[in-house]
Amino acid sequence: KKKKKEREKRIKQNKEIKNKNNQFDDETEIVLGMINKNHQKTKHQKEVKMTKKQRQILKKKKRIKRVLKYIVLLILLLLFLMTYLHFYNSIKLIDGINVNNNNKITNETIISLSELYTGQNIFQFNKRRTINNIKENPYIESVEIKRKIPNEVQISIQEREKDFNVEFLNGYAYINKQGYILEISEQKIEAPIIQGIATPEEQIVPGNRLESEDLEKLEVVIQIMNIAQNYDLNTKITNIDISNKNEYTMYIAEEKKTVYLGNKTNLSNKMLYVQAILEKNQGKEGYIYVDGDLNNSFKPRFRESVEV
Q: What is the distance of C-alpha 124 from the center of its chain?
């Protein structure tokens, strides 16, 4: 019984302590709330007590601070722009334009066509437009432009070759193997003369290309020249007539012989016969016929010219 009474006594004491602590917390919260309320009231009272002039001064100070902040930001922005423009306009100015792989067209001509110049900003030109400007010259096949930072431009070109003469008015048009017209001249280059083209005269202009009919025949001409090279005849061919695709005709000036090739079939076998006939009939002017079907009992022949 004694222990039971002591336990009940301790329980009672703990409850009293807990109630006191809860009462203290509630009182503390009330006191803090009253302090905060008094603070807000004091602040409000101070604001109420401010005169109209004081409020205007306060607003003016805030406005000045805001303006100063914008001015500082603006100054920083201007400093950044000035630094960027100095780098962009001064450090990156072109001081060298190099041209590579040109043999026929001079550096000066290519640079002039490009419209680039020293002192120009290296980023202030359009590469595609510059390439198109250079390719206005019919001898230019392709163009590659590279910016070499900090201040150099490299122009690499590929030129077209003069592979054939085409009879044109009282002179010649130089063309390449793709049929591009490169130049009009009174002088003949050391290359075969192509006769009988179908492209109208008004379209024979440097930079233009032969019509599709002539381009197809030009492919046959290239085959003829390639095969002739195997028999050391390519340098002897002076003229090739393409007016009739079923009767390609060659003329060999130093032999004074005309060769009738027929169509484009069996060109290798035909050229073999041409070589044999030339060796057998050296010094004789005449006509070589290999324009039949070699697979169907046709026999190549030579007919000597008869002087009248």
A: 16
Tokens of 92: 């990156």
- Between the CA of residue 154 and those of 50, 114, 206, 233, 234, what are the distances in Å? 74, 11, 26, 42, 38
Taking the chain (308 residues) in consecutive chunks of 10 residues, what is each chunk's mean pLDDT? 62 60 54 58 54 72 83 89 69 87 94 93 91 96 92 95 93 96 95 95 95 96 96 94 96 95 94 94 94 88 82
Distance CA 298, CA 282 (A): 23
- In angstroms, what is the C-alpha Rg of the chain? 49
Joined together, the tokens standing for residue 260 give 């009738």
**144 Cβ neighbours under 8 A, 6+ residues apart:** 155, 156, 157
CB neighbourhood size of 137 (10 A): 19
Q: Which amino acid is at 23?
A: Q
State pTM to two decimals: 0.68
Q: Is the dihedral of CA 243, 249, 250, 256 positive or negative?
A: negative
Q: Are strands 257-262 and 286-289 parallel, antiparallel or unpaired?
A: parallel
Residue 139's nearest CA partner among 98, 172, 184, 96 is: 184
SS3 155: strand
Strand partners, 148: 152
Q: How far, in Å, CA of 300 to CA of 160, rounded?
A: 38
